[in-house]
Design a protein that fits this description.
46% of the residues lie in helices and 14% in strands. It has an eight-stranded mixed β-sheet with strand order 1-7-6-5-2-3-4-8, with helices on both faces. Keywords: Membrane, Transmembrane, Transmembrane helix.
Length: 266
């Protein structure tokens, strides 16, 4: 050992080479461990088992129950639980289909600053059909249609929402309910708009507001129960805190709508 130390001290090149080799070996071991870790495998480097095959792992009742518990606690999303739409036209067409097939409830959230989702003629046609379908579905006797809106002066979409609200409330549809929030939109981040059908599926729509281009915005439909329940609870909280414009089987508060409308003329 003393001779090796003496040799290395007199030969800096050899010393550097050995250090490099050792460093490379250590890095390799760490890399192998990290790869195995992210793949969910257990790794053991010491003590080495030479001449023996590794013992086969045997599930004990405790290990089996723990494994089953982990599996039951973790519910993975499959491609059947999530639908991705390539553009707003595909989104509108799907929403129209789901609204027509709704059996008990539609919860609609349209708030925050928003850009127009119709950039082509086909997208515009799909958007118009969507607004027509809203009236048709809200008019069904078995459907409870709840909607929460905001009416920002900062974009033209605020006035569009107001026109939609007036059209829906003027028809005095029994099952249609409308509430709104009144706040300054310039001081808030982008808000996500979404729709819940029968408390079984949530459809995530516009969410970029006006801070990013709408091109490339992702739209999703999810029917995984735990996720839908989360959004349903969130919507219920939003609904509970909003101011009422129209309640079921009652006429809308026309004075409140008129005050909102005056903001766009001032």
């Amino acid at each position: 050992m003393n001779e090796l130390i003496k040799l290395l001290s007199n030969n800096p090149t050899a010393t550097s080479s050995i250090i490099i080799v050792i460093s490379f070996a250590v890095c390799s071991v760490i890399l192998i461990y990290l790869i195995a870790f992210f793949q969910g495998r257990e790794v053991s480097f010491w003590p080495p088992k030479i001449g023996k095959r590794p013992a086969k792992l045997i599930d004990t009742p405790h290990s089996s129950s723990m494994s089953n518990k982990r599996n039951s606690d973790t519910k993975n999303l499959s491609h059947h639980d999530v639908k991705l739409f390539k553009d707003s036209q595909a989104l509108f067409e799907y929403v129209i289909h789901k609204m027509k097939s709704a059996e008990k409830s539609i919860d609609d959230l349209s708030w925050g600053l928003q850009q127009s989702m119709s950039r082509t003629k086909l997208q515009s046609v799909s958007s118009d059909k969507y607004y027509e379908t809203r009236i048709l579905c809200a008019s069904k006797n078995n459907i409870q249609y709840r909607e929460v809106m905001t009416f920002p002066k900062e974009t033209v979409y605020g006035k569009v929402r107001l026109e939609v609200a007036e059209e829906m409330t003027e028809k005095n549809i029994d099952g249609y309910q409308l509430r709104y929030y009144d706040f300054l939109h310039e001081n808030i981040p982008p808000l996500s708009n979404f729709l819940i059908i029968d408390s079984e599926e949530v459809i995530l729509a516009s969410h970029r507001g006006v801070v990013m281009p709408i091109e490339g915005e992702t739209y999703l439909a999810i029917n995984q129960k735990d996720i839908v329940d989360w959004f349903q609870d969130y919507y219920n909280a939003i609904w509970a805190g909003a101011e009422t414009i129209k309640e079921p089987s009652r006429e809308a508060n026309s004075e409140l709508l008129q005050r909102i409308k005056q903001r766009f003329s001032s």
